[in-house]
Design brief:
alpha/beta; Beta-Lactamase; Alpha-Beta Plaits; TIM Barrel; 3 domains; eight-stranded mixed beta barrel; five-stranded antiparallel beta sheet; 21 helices; elongated; EAL domain-containing protein; GGDEF_dom; EAL_sf; Biofilm_reg_signaling
Amino acid sequence: MTSESDDAYEALIQFLYQAPVGLIQLQQDGSIEMLNPMASQLLMPVSPDGNLANLFDVLQQQAPGLRAQCQAYPYAHGVIADGMRLVLGSAGAAEPGGRGARPEVLALGVLKVDAGRMMAVLVDATAEVQREQRTLARRLDSAARIDTLTKLPNRAAVRELLQRMAARPRAASGDEGALLFINVDRFRQVNHTLGSPVGDQVMVLMAERLRASVRSGARPGGDGNAQGLGEVAARVGGDEFTLVLDGLAGAGVAESIAARLQQTLGKPYRIGLHDISLQFSIGVVYLGAGGAAADDVLRDASVAVAVAKAAGGGQTVLFQPAMREQAARRGGIEAELRSALAQGQLFTVYQPVVGVLPDGAIDRSAGVEALVRWQHPGRGVVGPIEFIEIAEQSGLIDAIGEFVLRAACRDFAAWQNELGARAPRLLAVNLSRAQLGDASLCDKVAAILDASGMQPAQLQLEVTESLAAQGADIQQQLQRLKALGVKLALDDFGTGFSSLSSLHLLPVDTVKIDRSFVSLSDTSHHHEVLIEATVKVARSLGMSTVAEGIETEAQAAVVRRQGCDKGQGYLYSRPLPAAALAAWIQAR
Protein backbone atom coordinates (compact mmCIF):
# COMPACT_ATOMS: atom_id res chain seq x y z
CA MET A 1 0.00 0.00 0.00
CA THR A 2 2.85 2.28 0.85
CA SER A 3 4.45 1.52 -2.50
CA GLU A 4 1.28 2.47 -4.33
CA SER A 5 1.02 5.73 -2.41
CA ASP A 6 4.62 6.55 -3.18
CA ASP A 7 4.00 5.87 -6.87
CA ALA A 8 0.93 8.10 -6.91
CA TYR A 9 2.80 10.90 -5.14
CA GLU A 10 5.69 10.56 -7.57
CA ALA A 11 3.27 10.72 -10.51
CA LEU A 12 1.67 13.84 -9.06
CA ILE A 13 5.05 15.50 -8.61
CA GLN A 14 6.00 14.61 -12.18
CA PHE A 15 2.74 16.06 -13.46
CA LEU A 16 3.19 19.28 -11.52
CA TYR A 17 6.72 19.75 -12.77
CA GLN A 18 5.85 18.91 -16.37
CA ALA A 19 2.56 20.82 -16.47
CA PRO A 20 2.30 23.36 -19.35
CA VAL A 21 1.18 26.02 -16.87
CA GLY A 22 3.06 27.67 -14.03
CA LEU A 23 2.16 26.35 -10.57
CA ILE A 24 3.30 28.10 -7.38
CA GLN A 25 2.70 27.30 -3.72
CA LEU A 26 3.17 30.32 -1.46
CA GLN A 27 2.57 31.52 2.04
CA GLN A 28 0.26 34.31 3.15
CA ASP A 29 3.10 36.85 2.96
CA GLY A 30 3.95 35.81 -0.62
CA SER A 31 6.96 33.65 0.17
CA ILE A 32 7.28 30.94 -2.46
CA GLU A 33 7.46 27.42 -1.08
CA MET A 34 7.38 25.56 -4.38
CA LEU A 35 7.13 26.40 -8.09
CA ASN A 36 7.39 24.24 -11.16
CA PRO A 37 9.75 24.88 -14.10
CA MET A 38 7.06 26.58 -16.21
CA ALA A 39 6.36 29.07 -13.41
CA SER A 40 10.06 29.81 -13.14
CA GLN A 41 10.31 30.30 -16.91
CA LEU A 42 7.34 32.67 -16.98
CA LEU A 43 8.56 34.74 -14.01
CA MET A 44 12.22 35.08 -14.95
CA PRO A 45 11.62 37.94 -17.49
CA VAL A 46 10.27 40.12 -14.66
CA SER A 47 13.01 39.13 -12.20
CA PRO A 48 16.33 39.80 -13.97
CA ASP A 49 18.33 38.99 -10.83
CA GLY A 50 16.71 35.57 -10.64
CA ASN A 51 15.31 36.12 -7.14
CA LEU A 52 12.00 34.27 -7.02
CA ALA A 53 11.69 34.13 -3.24
CA ASN A 54 8.49 36.18 -2.93
CA LEU A 55 5.74 36.31 -5.57
CA PHE A 56 4.41 39.70 -4.42
CA ASP A 57 7.88 41.23 -4.74
CA VAL A 58 8.45 39.68 -8.16
CA LEU A 59 5.13 41.04 -9.50
CA GLN A 60 5.26 44.39 -7.68
CA GLN A 61 5.44 46.37 -10.94
CA GLN A 62 2.89 44.32 -12.89
CA ALA A 63 0.40 43.81 -10.01
CA PRO A 64 1.11 46.39 -7.29
CA GLY A 65 -2.14 45.64 -5.47
CA LEU A 66 -1.76 41.87 -5.39
CA ARG A 67 -0.24 41.71 -1.86
CA ALA A 68 -3.05 43.75 -0.32
CA GLN A 69 -5.71 41.85 -2.27
CA CYS A 70 -4.46 38.46 -1.07
CA GLN A 71 -3.88 39.49 2.54
CA ALA A 72 -7.29 41.16 2.77
CA TYR A 73 -9.17 38.11 1.48
CA PRO A 74 -11.57 37.34 4.36
CA TYR A 75 -12.34 33.67 3.79
CA ALA A 76 -10.43 30.56 4.83
CA HIS A 77 -10.35 29.30 1.27
CA GLY A 78 -11.58 30.34 -2.16
CA VAL A 79 -10.59 32.14 -5.37
CA ILE A 80 -8.75 35.39 -4.69
CA ALA A 81 -7.91 36.27 -8.31
CA ASP A 82 -8.94 34.68 -11.58
CA GLY A 83 -7.43 35.55 -14.97
CA MET A 84 -5.66 38.70 -13.75
CA ARG A 85 -3.75 40.10 -16.75
CA LEU A 86 -0.10 40.99 -16.13
CA VAL A 87 1.49 43.00 -18.94
CA LEU A 88 5.21 42.27 -19.24
CA GLY A 89 5.97 44.33 -22.36
CA SER A 90 6.60 43.60 -26.04
CA ALA A 91 7.70 40.14 -27.02
CA GLY A 92 11.43 39.94 -27.53
CA ALA A 93 13.82 37.49 -29.06
CA ALA A 94 13.64 33.82 -28.27
CA GLU A 95 14.69 32.80 -24.79
CA PRO A 96 18.08 31.10 -24.42
CA GLY A 97 17.71 27.42 -25.08
CA GLY A 98 15.18 27.89 -27.85
CA ARG A 99 12.16 28.12 -25.62
CA GLY A 100 10.39 30.60 -27.87
CA ALA A 101 9.71 34.30 -27.63
CA ARG A 102 9.19 35.81 -24.20
CA PRO A 103 5.54 36.27 -23.25
CA GLU A 104 3.96 39.70 -23.44
CA VAL A 105 1.02 39.02 -21.12
CA LEU A 106 0.54 36.55 -18.28
CA ALA A 107 -2.76 35.46 -16.76
CA LEU A 108 -2.64 34.90 -12.99
CA GLY A 109 -5.03 32.99 -10.80
CA VAL A 110 -4.69 32.75 -6.98
CA LEU A 111 -6.51 30.22 -4.79
CA LYS A 112 -6.49 30.31 -0.99
CA VAL A 113 -5.98 26.75 0.25
CA ASP A 114 -6.10 27.37 4.00
CA ALA A 115 -5.29 30.06 6.54
CA GLY A 116 -1.59 30.05 5.76
CA ARG A 117 -1.15 28.88 2.17
CA MET A 118 -2.15 29.84 -1.35
CA MET A 119 -1.71 28.30 -4.78
CA ALA A 120 -1.06 30.43 -7.85
CA VAL A 121 -1.46 29.49 -11.51
CA LEU A 122 0.37 31.36 -14.31
CA VAL A 123 -0.21 30.94 -18.03
CA ASP A 124 1.14 32.72 -21.07
CA ALA A 125 -1.88 34.72 -22.31
CA THR A 126 -0.04 36.44 -25.17
CA ALA A 127 -1.74 34.47 -27.94
CA GLU A 128 -5.17 34.90 -26.34
CA VAL A 129 -4.68 38.65 -25.98
CA GLN A 130 -3.49 38.92 -29.57
CA ARG A 131 -6.60 37.06 -30.73
CA GLU A 132 -8.76 39.42 -28.70
CA GLN A 133 -6.95 42.41 -30.18
CA ARG A 134 -7.46 41.11 -33.70
CA THR A 135 -11.15 40.53 -33.01
CA LEU A 136 -11.48 44.01 -31.52
CA ALA A 137 -9.63 45.52 -34.48
CA ARG A 138 -12.04 43.81 -36.87
CA ARG A 139 -15.00 45.13 -34.90
CA LEU A 140 -13.55 48.63 -34.78
CA ASP A 141 -12.76 48.45 -38.47
CA SER A 142 -16.35 47.47 -39.15
CA ALA A 143 -17.66 50.20 -36.84
CA ALA A 144 -15.47 52.75 -38.62
CA ARG A 145 -17.42 51.99 -41.79
CA ILE A 146 -20.92 52.23 -40.29
CA ASP A 147 -22.88 55.40 -39.59
CA THR A 148 -23.85 55.26 -35.93
CA LEU A 149 -27.24 56.96 -36.36
CA THR A 150 -28.70 55.17 -39.39
CA LYS A 151 -26.55 51.98 -39.34
CA LEU A 152 -25.92 52.48 -43.05
CA PRO A 153 -22.39 52.28 -44.46
CA ASN A 154 -20.56 55.58 -44.09
CA ARG A 155 -18.26 57.66 -46.31
CA ALA A 156 -15.24 55.45 -45.62
CA ALA A 157 -17.15 52.38 -46.80
CA VAL A 158 -18.32 54.17 -49.95
CA ARG A 159 -14.76 55.26 -50.73
CA GLU A 160 -13.52 51.67 -50.49
CA LEU A 161 -16.34 50.41 -52.71
CA LEU A 162 -15.66 53.08 -55.34
CA GLN A 163 -11.95 52.28 -55.27
CA ARG A 164 -12.66 48.59 -55.91
CA MET A 165 -15.02 49.45 -58.75
CA ALA A 166 -12.46 51.79 -60.32
CA ALA A 167 -9.73 49.15 -60.20
CA ARG A 168 -11.61 46.39 -62.01
CA PRO A 169 -11.62 45.91 -65.81
CA ARG A 170 -14.65 47.09 -67.73
CA ALA A 171 -17.21 44.40 -68.38
CA ALA A 172 -17.49 43.20 -71.95
CA SER A 173 -21.19 43.98 -71.88
CA GLY A 174 -20.43 47.64 -71.41
CA ASP A 175 -22.41 47.74 -68.17
CA GLU A 176 -21.20 50.46 -65.85
CA GLY A 177 -21.73 51.86 -62.40
CA ALA A 178 -22.94 55.19 -61.11
CA LEU A 179 -23.00 57.19 -57.92
CA LEU A 180 -26.11 59.06 -56.82
CA PHE A 181 -25.33 61.78 -54.27
CA ILE A 182 -28.49 62.78 -52.38
CA ASN A 183 -28.67 65.98 -50.34
CA VAL A 184 -31.69 67.20 -48.39
CA ASP A 185 -32.62 70.74 -49.41
CA ARG A 186 -32.80 73.24 -46.56
CA PHE A 187 -32.60 70.56 -43.88
CA ARG A 188 -31.18 73.10 -41.44
CA GLN A 189 -34.68 74.55 -41.27
CA VAL A 190 -35.96 71.28 -39.77
CA ASN A 191 -33.28 71.33 -37.09
CA HIS A 192 -33.83 75.01 -36.36
CA THR A 193 -37.60 74.86 -36.07
CA LEU A 194 -38.22 71.35 -34.68
CA GLY A 195 -34.89 70.54 -33.02
CA SER A 196 -32.05 68.19 -33.86
CA PRO A 197 -33.69 65.10 -32.23
CA VAL A 198 -36.52 65.39 -34.77
CA GLY A 199 -33.94 65.91 -37.50
CA ASP A 200 -32.18 62.72 -36.43
CA GLN A 201 -35.45 60.79 -36.61
CA VAL A 202 -35.99 62.07 -40.14
CA MET A 203 -32.50 60.83 -41.08
CA VAL A 204 -33.33 57.38 -39.70
CA LEU A 205 -36.59 57.21 -41.68
CA MET A 206 -34.79 58.34 -44.83
CA ALA A 207 -32.25 55.57 -44.32
CA GLU A 208 -35.05 53.03 -44.01
CA ARG A 209 -36.58 54.19 -47.30
CA LEU A 210 -33.21 53.94 -49.01
CA ARG A 211 -32.73 50.43 -47.64
CA ALA A 212 -36.17 49.47 -48.88
CA SER A 213 -35.36 50.90 -52.31
CA VAL A 214 -32.22 48.78 -52.49
CA ARG A 215 -34.01 45.65 -51.32
CA SER A 216 -36.90 46.08 -53.75
CA GLY A 217 -34.75 47.11 -56.68
CA ALA A 218 -34.27 50.85 -56.96
CA ARG A 219 -34.22 50.85 -60.71
CA PRO A 220 -37.48 51.31 -62.60
CA GLY A 221 -39.39 48.07 -62.85
CA GLY A 222 -37.55 46.60 -59.85
CA ASP A 223 -39.18 43.28 -59.06
CA GLY A 224 -37.66 42.52 -55.68
CA ASN A 225 -34.75 40.57 -57.16
CA ALA A 226 -32.17 43.32 -56.83
CA GLN A 227 -29.62 41.24 -54.94
CA GLY A 228 -26.35 41.05 -56.80
CA LEU A 229 -27.00 44.23 -58.76
CA GLY A 230 -24.54 46.12 -56.58
CA GLU A 231 -26.81 48.73 -55.08
CA VAL A 232 -25.37 50.09 -51.82
CA ALA A 233 -27.02 52.88 -49.84
CA ALA A 234 -24.89 54.92 -47.44
CA ARG A 235 -24.94 58.04 -45.30
CA VAL A 236 -21.88 60.15 -46.03
CA GLY A 237 -22.66 63.36 -44.12
CA GLY A 238 -25.16 65.10 -41.87
CA ASP A 239 -27.91 65.36 -44.49
CA GLU A 240 -26.10 63.58 -47.32
CA PHE A 241 -26.68 60.07 -48.62
CA THR A 242 -25.33 58.11 -51.56
CA LEU A 243 -26.51 55.20 -53.64
CA VAL A 244 -23.79 53.26 -55.47
CA LEU A 245 -25.17 51.44 -58.50
CA ASP A 246 -23.53 48.73 -60.55
CA GLY A 247 -24.39 46.77 -63.65
CA LEU A 248 -26.27 49.59 -65.36
CA ALA A 249 -27.04 48.84 -68.99
CA GLY A 250 -27.63 51.86 -71.17
CA ALA A 251 -27.58 55.61 -70.76
CA GLY A 252 -30.04 57.38 -68.53
CA VAL A 253 -30.69 54.47 -66.15
CA ALA A 254 -29.15 56.25 -63.16
CA GLU A 255 -31.25 59.35 -63.83
CA SER A 256 -34.39 57.20 -63.94
CA ILE A 257 -33.47 55.67 -60.59
CA ALA A 258 -32.88 59.16 -59.19
CA ALA A 259 -36.33 60.25 -60.38
CA ARG A 260 -37.87 57.30 -58.58
CA LEU A 261 -35.95 58.15 -55.42
CA GLN A 262 -37.18 61.74 -55.60
CA GLN A 263 -40.72 60.38 -55.32
CA THR A 264 -39.91 57.79 -52.65
CA LEU A 265 -37.92 60.09 -50.40
CA GLY A 266 -40.19 63.08 -51.03
CA LYS A 267 -43.23 61.58 -49.30
CA PRO A 268 -43.95 63.28 -45.93
CA TYR A 269 -42.18 62.00 -42.81
CA ARG A 270 -44.43 61.59 -39.80
CA ILE A 271 -42.55 62.49 -36.58
CA GLY A 272 -44.85 62.82 -33.58
CA LEU A 273 -47.45 65.43 -34.52
CA HIS A 274 -45.41 66.75 -37.44
CA ASP A 275 -45.70 65.82 -41.11
CA ILE A 276 -42.39 66.94 -42.58
CA SER A 277 -42.15 67.38 -46.34
CA LEU A 278 -38.71 67.57 -47.90
CA GLN A 279 -37.20 67.88 -51.32
CA PHE A 280 -33.85 66.63 -52.52
CA SER A 281 -31.02 67.65 -54.80
CA ILE A 282 -29.40 64.63 -56.45
CA GLY A 283 -26.11 64.59 -58.32
CA VAL A 284 -25.35 61.73 -60.71
CA VAL A 285 -21.87 60.57 -61.77
CA TYR A 286 -21.27 57.61 -64.08
CA LEU A 287 -18.23 55.45 -63.33
CA GLY A 288 -16.22 54.55 -66.41
CA ALA A 289 -13.46 51.98 -66.93
CA GLY A 290 -10.20 52.79 -65.16
CA GLY A 291 -12.34 55.27 -63.31
CA ALA A 292 -11.47 58.30 -61.29
CA ALA A 293 -10.34 58.07 -57.68
CA ALA A 294 -13.09 57.68 -55.11
CA ASP A 295 -12.60 61.16 -53.69
CA ASP A 296 -12.85 62.65 -57.18
CA VAL A 297 -16.11 60.80 -57.83
CA LEU A 298 -17.59 62.02 -54.55
CA ARG A 299 -16.41 65.54 -55.30
CA ASP A 300 -17.93 65.51 -58.79
CA ALA A 301 -21.22 64.22 -57.42
CA SER A 302 -21.33 66.94 -54.78
CA VAL A 303 -20.59 69.52 -57.50
CA ALA A 304 -23.64 68.28 -59.41
CA VAL A 305 -25.67 68.58 -56.20
CA ALA A 306 -24.54 72.20 -55.83
CA VAL A 307 -25.71 72.90 -59.37
CA ALA A 308 -29.09 71.35 -58.54
CA LYS A 309 -29.39 73.50 -55.43
CA ALA A 310 -28.42 76.64 -57.33
CA ALA A 311 -31.32 75.91 -59.69
CA GLY A 312 -33.75 75.90 -56.78
CA GLY A 313 -33.37 72.37 -55.40
CA GLY A 314 -35.63 69.39 -55.84
CA GLN A 315 -33.79 68.42 -59.02
CA THR A 316 -31.45 65.78 -60.39
CA VAL A 317 -28.34 66.93 -62.23
CA LEU A 318 -25.95 64.78 -64.26
CA PHE A 319 -22.36 65.83 -63.67
CA GLN A 320 -20.52 67.44 -66.57
CA PRO A 321 -16.74 68.12 -66.52
CA ALA A 322 -17.29 71.85 -67.09
CA MET A 323 -18.94 72.01 -63.68
CA ARG A 324 -15.57 71.50 -61.97
CA GLU A 325 -14.29 74.89 -63.07
CA GLN A 326 -17.52 76.55 -61.97
CA ALA A 327 -17.31 74.80 -58.61
CA ALA A 328 -13.69 75.88 -58.15
CA ARG A 329 -14.69 79.48 -58.79
CA ARG A 330 -17.59 79.23 -56.36
CA GLY A 331 -15.33 77.61 -53.79
CA GLY A 332 -12.87 80.47 -54.14
CA ILE A 333 -15.62 83.04 -53.67
CA GLU A 334 -16.90 81.18 -50.60
CA ALA A 335 -13.44 81.18 -49.00
CA GLU A 336 -12.98 84.88 -49.77
CA LEU A 337 -16.45 85.62 -48.44
CA ARG A 338 -15.64 83.96 -45.13
CA SER A 339 -12.56 86.15 -44.88
CA ALA A 340 -14.61 89.19 -45.84
CA LEU A 341 -16.96 88.60 -42.92
CA ALA A 342 -14.07 88.19 -40.51
CA GLN A 343 -12.15 91.20 -41.84
CA GLY A 344 -15.05 93.64 -42.09
CA GLN A 345 -15.07 93.93 -45.89
CA LEU A 346 -18.88 93.92 -46.12
CA PHE A 347 -20.76 97.19 -45.87
CA THR A 348 -24.29 98.52 -46.37
CA VAL A 349 -25.70 100.98 -48.87
CA TYR A 350 -29.22 102.39 -48.99
CA GLN A 351 -31.60 103.00 -51.87
CA PRO A 352 -34.28 105.61 -51.22
CA VAL A 353 -37.93 104.58 -51.31
CA VAL A 354 -39.82 107.78 -52.14
CA GLY A 355 -43.38 108.76 -51.53
CA VAL A 356 -45.23 109.32 -54.84
CA LEU A 357 -47.29 112.51 -54.62
CA PRO A 358 -50.19 113.36 -57.00
CA ASP A 359 -48.56 116.59 -58.19
CA GLY A 360 -45.45 114.77 -59.37
CA ALA A 361 -43.34 115.68 -56.36
CA ILE A 362 -41.70 113.04 -54.19
CA ASP A 363 -41.32 112.55 -50.46
CA ARG A 364 -37.63 111.84 -49.91
CA SER A 365 -38.07 110.79 -46.29
CA ALA A 366 -40.54 107.95 -46.91
CA GLY A 367 -37.96 105.24 -46.37
CA VAL A 368 -34.81 103.40 -47.46
CA GLU A 369 -33.92 99.83 -48.36
CA ALA A 370 -30.67 98.42 -46.97
CA LEU A 371 -28.47 96.49 -49.41
CA VAL A 372 -25.15 94.72 -48.88
CA ARG A 373 -21.93 95.29 -50.78
CA TRP A 374 -18.49 93.69 -50.61
CA GLN A 375 -15.34 95.81 -50.72
CA HIS A 376 -13.12 93.17 -52.33
CA PRO A 377 -9.39 93.90 -51.92
CA GLY A 378 -8.65 93.03 -55.54
CA ARG A 379 -11.89 93.52 -57.45
CA GLY A 380 -13.27 96.61 -55.82
CA VAL A 381 -16.94 96.84 -54.89
CA VAL A 382 -18.79 93.57 -55.57
CA GLY A 383 -22.59 93.50 -55.79
CA PRO A 384 -24.76 90.86 -54.09
CA ILE A 385 -25.68 89.15 -57.35
CA GLU A 386 -22.16 87.67 -57.37
CA PHE A 387 -22.11 86.23 -53.87
CA ILE A 388 -25.55 85.98 -52.22
CA GLU A 389 -26.41 82.64 -53.83
CA ILE A 390 -23.07 81.20 -52.71
CA ALA A 391 -23.66 82.62 -49.23
CA GLU A 392 -27.02 80.83 -49.09
CA GLN A 393 -25.57 77.49 -50.16
CA SER A 394 -22.58 77.72 -47.81
CA GLY A 395 -24.56 78.73 -44.74
CA LEU A 396 -22.97 82.20 -44.58
CA ILE A 397 -26.23 83.98 -45.34
CA ASP A 398 -27.30 83.94 -41.67
CA ALA A 399 -24.21 85.88 -40.61
CA ILE A 400 -24.48 88.26 -43.57
CA GLY A 401 -28.18 88.88 -42.95
CA GLU A 402 -27.59 89.61 -39.28
CA PHE A 403 -24.71 91.95 -40.16
CA VAL A 404 -26.90 93.93 -42.59
CA LEU A 405 -29.77 94.20 -40.11
CA ARG A 406 -27.51 95.33 -37.28
CA ALA A 407 -25.59 97.87 -39.41
CA ALA A 408 -28.76 99.25 -41.02
CA CYS A 409 -30.54 99.74 -37.70
CA ARG A 410 -27.48 101.52 -36.34
CA ASP A 411 -27.39 103.87 -39.35
CA PHE A 412 -31.15 104.44 -39.17
CA ALA A 413 -30.86 105.51 -35.53
CA ALA A 414 -28.00 107.87 -36.44
CA TRP A 415 -30.15 109.51 -39.15
CA GLN A 416 -32.85 110.22 -36.60
CA ASN A 417 -30.36 112.17 -34.52
CA GLU A 418 -28.78 113.90 -37.53
CA LEU A 419 -31.81 114.74 -39.67
CA GLY A 420 -34.61 115.02 -37.14
CA ALA A 421 -38.00 115.36 -38.83
CA ARG A 422 -36.44 114.85 -42.26
CA ALA A 423 -34.93 111.45 -41.37
CA PRO A 424 -36.26 108.33 -43.16
CA ARG A 425 -39.42 107.04 -41.51
CA LEU A 426 -39.01 103.39 -42.49
CA LEU A 427 -36.07 101.00 -42.88
CA ALA A 428 -36.51 98.01 -45.21
CA VAL A 429 -34.24 94.96 -44.85
CA ASN A 430 -34.45 91.73 -46.86
CA LEU A 431 -34.75 88.33 -45.20
CA SER A 432 -33.30 85.17 -46.72
CA ARG A 433 -34.83 81.72 -46.70
CA ALA A 434 -32.24 80.58 -44.16
CA GLN A 435 -33.05 83.45 -41.80
CA LEU A 436 -36.76 82.64 -41.96
CA GLY A 437 -35.90 79.07 -41.01
CA ASP A 438 -34.00 80.23 -37.91
CA ALA A 439 -36.08 79.61 -34.79
CA SER A 440 -34.23 82.41 -32.98
CA LEU A 441 -34.92 85.05 -35.67
CA CYS A 442 -37.52 86.97 -33.65
CA ASP A 443 -35.22 87.11 -30.63
CA LYS A 444 -32.37 88.40 -32.80
CA VAL A 445 -34.56 91.08 -34.40
CA ALA A 446 -35.88 92.20 -31.01
CA ALA A 447 -32.36 92.41 -29.57
CA ILE A 448 -31.06 94.46 -32.52
CA LEU A 449 -34.02 96.85 -32.34
CA ASP A 450 -33.47 97.28 -28.62
CA ALA A 451 -29.75 97.94 -29.08
CA SER A 452 -30.39 100.60 -31.73
CA GLY A 453 -33.32 102.28 -30.01
CA MET A 454 -35.59 101.78 -33.03
CA GLN A 455 -39.30 101.15 -32.69
CA PRO A 456 -40.46 97.85 -34.27
CA ALA A 457 -42.88 99.73 -36.56
CA GLN A 458 -39.92 101.59 -38.09
CA LEU A 459 -38.51 98.32 -39.46
CA GLN A 460 -39.91 96.59 -42.54
CA LEU A 461 -38.68 93.06 -43.24
CA GLU A 462 -39.03 91.97 -46.85
CA VAL A 463 -39.50 88.43 -48.16
CA THR A 464 -39.90 87.35 -51.75
CA GLU A 465 -43.30 86.32 -52.99
CA SER A 466 -42.16 82.76 -53.74
CA LEU A 467 -40.77 82.37 -50.22
CA ALA A 468 -43.79 83.84 -48.41
CA ALA A 469 -46.12 81.44 -50.24
CA GLN A 470 -44.31 78.36 -48.93
CA GLY A 471 -45.17 75.99 -46.08
CA ALA A 472 -46.73 76.41 -42.67
CA ASP A 473 -43.36 76.91 -40.97
CA ILE A 474 -42.69 80.06 -43.02
CA GLN A 475 -46.20 81.34 -42.33
CA GLN A 476 -45.74 80.81 -38.60
CA GLN A 477 -42.42 82.65 -38.63
CA LEU A 478 -44.03 85.59 -40.45
CA GLN A 479 -46.82 85.68 -37.89
CA ARG A 480 -44.28 85.76 -35.06
CA LEU A 481 -42.48 88.68 -36.71
CA LYS A 482 -45.81 90.42 -37.17
CA ALA A 483 -46.57 89.97 -33.47
CA LEU A 484 -43.23 91.58 -32.67
CA GLY A 485 -44.56 94.77 -34.25
CA VAL A 486 -42.35 95.01 -37.34
CA LYS A 487 -43.86 95.57 -40.77
CA LEU A 488 -43.69 92.92 -43.49
CA ALA A 489 -43.38 93.46 -47.23
CA LEU A 490 -43.92 91.08 -50.13
CA ASP A 491 -40.98 91.63 -52.48
CA ASP A 492 -40.92 91.05 -56.26
CA PHE A 493 -44.69 90.55 -56.42
CA GLY A 494 -45.76 89.05 -59.73
CA THR A 495 -42.78 86.72 -60.16
CA GLY A 496 -43.74 83.93 -57.75
CA PHE A 497 -46.65 81.67 -56.97
CA SER A 498 -49.08 84.07 -55.35
CA SER A 499 -52.03 85.61 -57.11
CA LEU A 500 -54.16 88.64 -56.37
CA SER A 501 -56.90 86.33 -55.15
CA SER A 502 -54.62 84.79 -52.50
CA LEU A 503 -52.96 88.01 -51.37
CA HIS A 504 -55.25 88.22 -48.35
CA LEU A 505 -53.77 84.98 -47.00
CA LEU A 506 -50.34 86.54 -46.45
CA PRO A 507 -49.62 88.57 -43.27
CA VAL A 508 -47.98 91.49 -45.08
CA ASP A 509 -48.35 95.26 -44.90
CA THR A 510 -46.80 96.23 -48.23
CA VAL A 511 -46.71 94.78 -51.74
CA LYS A 512 -43.66 95.63 -53.85
CA ILE A 513 -44.51 95.37 -57.56
CA ASP A 514 -41.69 93.71 -59.45
CA ARG A 515 -39.51 95.76 -61.79
CA SER A 516 -40.37 93.46 -64.70
CA PHE A 517 -43.89 94.97 -64.70
CA VAL A 518 -42.71 98.53 -64.13
CA SER A 519 -40.07 98.44 -66.89
CA LEU A 520 -42.75 97.77 -69.54
CA SER A 521 -45.56 99.78 -68.02
CA ASP A 522 -45.05 102.85 -70.25
CA THR A 523 -45.11 100.80 -73.48
CA SER A 524 -47.43 97.89 -72.63
CA HIS A 525 -51.06 98.49 -71.69
CA HIS A 526 -51.18 94.92 -70.37
CA HIS A 527 -48.48 95.63 -67.78
CA GLU A 528 -50.11 98.90 -66.75
CA VAL A 529 -53.36 97.03 -66.17
CA LEU A 530 -51.53 94.52 -63.97
CA ILE A 531 -50.09 97.36 -61.89
CA GLU A 532 -53.55 98.94 -61.61
CA ALA A 533 -55.12 95.67 -60.46
CA THR A 534 -52.38 95.03 -57.90
CA VAL A 535 -52.75 98.52 -56.42
CA LYS A 536 -56.54 98.20 -56.14
CA VAL A 537 -56.49 94.76 -54.50
CA ALA A 538 -53.70 95.74 -52.10
CA ARG A 539 -55.52 98.92 -51.11
CA SER A 540 -58.74 96.99 -50.50
CA LEU A 541 -56.80 94.76 -48.09
CA GLY A 542 -55.25 97.71 -46.28
CA MET A 543 -51.82 97.19 -47.83
CA SER A 544 -49.57 99.86 -49.29
CA THR A 545 -47.73 99.46 -52.60
CA VAL A 546 -44.21 100.17 -53.83
CA ALA A 547 -43.24 100.13 -57.52
CA GLU A 548 -39.69 98.83 -58.00
CA GLY A 549 -37.23 99.63 -60.77
CA ILE A 550 -38.51 103.04 -61.89
CA GLU A 551 -35.93 104.39 -64.32
CA THR A 552 -37.79 106.93 -66.51
CA GLU A 553 -40.22 109.78 -66.04
CA ALA A 554 -42.73 107.91 -68.21
CA GLN A 555 -42.66 104.92 -65.84
CA ALA A 556 -42.99 107.27 -62.88
CA ALA A 557 -46.06 108.83 -64.53
CA VAL A 558 -47.72 105.41 -64.90
CA VAL A 559 -47.01 104.53 -61.29
CA ARG A 560 -48.41 107.86 -60.13
CA ARG A 561 -51.48 107.54 -62.38
CA GLN A 562 -52.30 104.09 -61.02
CA GLY A 563 -52.07 105.25 -57.42
CA CYS A 564 -48.93 103.54 -56.14
CA ASP A 565 -47.99 104.85 -52.71
CA LYS A 566 -44.22 104.71 -53.15
CA GLY A 567 -41.58 104.23 -55.80
CA GLN A 568 -38.01 103.03 -55.94
CA GLY A 569 -35.45 103.06 -58.74
CA TYR A 570 -32.52 104.73 -60.46
CA LEU A 571 -34.72 107.64 -61.56
CA TYR A 572 -34.63 108.85 -57.97
CA SER A 573 -31.29 107.50 -56.77
CA ARG A 574 -28.90 104.61 -56.94
CA PRO A 575 -27.98 102.92 -53.63
CA LEU A 576 -25.87 105.28 -51.50
CA PRO A 577 -23.61 105.02 -48.46
CA ALA A 578 -25.15 106.26 -45.22
CA ALA A 579 -23.56 109.72 -45.32
CA ALA A 580 -24.46 110.26 -48.98
CA LEU A 581 -28.02 109.15 -48.29
CA ALA A 582 -28.35 111.80 -45.60
CA ALA A 583 -27.07 114.43 -48.05
CA TRP A 584 -29.54 113.23 -50.73
CA ILE A 585 -32.48 113.61 -48.36
CA GLN A 586 -31.44 117.14 -47.47
CA ALA A 587 -31.07 118.16 -51.15
CA ARG A 588 -34.74 119.13 -51.51
